[in-house]
Amino acid sequence: MATGKNIRTYFNGDWHDGDVPIMRAADHGSWLGTTIFDGARYFDGVAPDLLYHCERANRSAEALMVTPTVAAEDMAQIVWEGLKRYPVDSAVYIRPMYWAIDGGDLGVAPKENSTGFCICLEEIPMAPQNAASTLCKTSFRRPVLESSVVNAKAGCLYPNNARMLVEARKRNFSNALVTDAMGNVAETATANIFMVKDGEVLTPVPNGTFLAGITRARHMKHLSENGHTVTEKVLTYKDFEDADEVFMSGNMMKVTPVTAFEDTQYQVGPVTRQVREMYWDWALSEAK
Questions:
Q1: Residues 6+ apart with CB under 8 A from 129
Q2: Res. 182: pLDDT tops 50
Q3: Torsion angle, CA of 79/83/85/89, rounded to 10 degrees?
Q4: How far is 70 from 77, CA to CA, in rounded Å?
Q5: What is the mean pLDDT of residues 103-107?
Q6: CB distance 194 to 228 below 8 Å
Q7: What is the pLDDT of residue 257?
Q8: Helix (H), strand (E), coil (C) string for 134-191
Q9: Is the pLDDT of residue 167 over 70?
């Protein structure tokens, strides 16, 4: 992730300049990891799908048994208020966050209606159009719902992703293509994944081990509306070795072409370029 600057924090009902302290040592979120966040993007004066990200933040809190305290519409309005301090050409990462404050019996689950909330705005540049990623295999896998809160964008899930990235970068790759417990491809360490084969766009079927992202859904809609066949299906490493194009989909950078998976090399193909063009055309003309 690019280094951030120009941070603003909404906490306790007010906007504050800088990266202000928000948690205490005894907060449930500090010592037992009951935190969630979501991420939206502001660029060129728009914040695409901001309301959807705020709605998902509340769903994530509920999945982690943390009571959300801010309606999604109000959350989006607070974000827009905070963005007024940034130039219109800024690129800002938007993170609404909840965490549990007091624990319940034995500190296992947070008490109802004991919730912290903040929003962090951090100026982080969008990736240049020629940016690309390389992928490798990883020894770590996505967890399942029976063992982890994979139906939430929970902070406690991300140390596992960090292990994947460290492993990949030690091998001089920029990211990892990650499988689920069955050995089928789920996503990368930081984003959802698509591949193209013989003109068909393929992406792993959501199976409860990864979040099927908001930006992912937006790309699928654009592709389908523009005549592409988009299929969610079980995919393996072999499918990606045989792919014509591969690209990542995530809120941070929206579309990232992949130029290698292990020893397999790819060109940045026409579908990948079209996905990026369609997203930016939509965002700048329709997104609120």
A1: 276
A2: yes
A3: 170
A4: 11
A5: 71
A6: no
A7: 97
A8: EEECCCCCCCCCCCCCCCCCEHHHHHHHHHHHHHHHHCCCCEEEEECCCCCEEEECCC
A9: yes
Do residues 259 and 268 lie in contact, with contact meaning Cβ atoms separated by under 8 Å?
yes
Token representation of residue 258: 């992949």
Give the relative orientation of helices 50-63 and 214-225 as an angle to the nearest 10 degrees: 130
Helical pair 214-225 and 270-285, crossing angle rounded to 10 deg:
100
Q: What proportion of the chain, given as a percentage, has pLDDT over 90?
A: 89
* pTM value > 0.90: yes
Residue 113 has pLDDT above 80, yes or no: no
If you average pLDDT over residues 195-199, what whole number do you get?
97
* Helix and strand numbers, DSSP H then E, in the chain: 7, 15
Place of tokens 């240049």: 128
Q: Report how far residue 1's alpha carbon sits from residue 133's, in angstroms, rounded to the nearest whole number.
A: 12
Residue 108 corresponds to which amino acid?
V
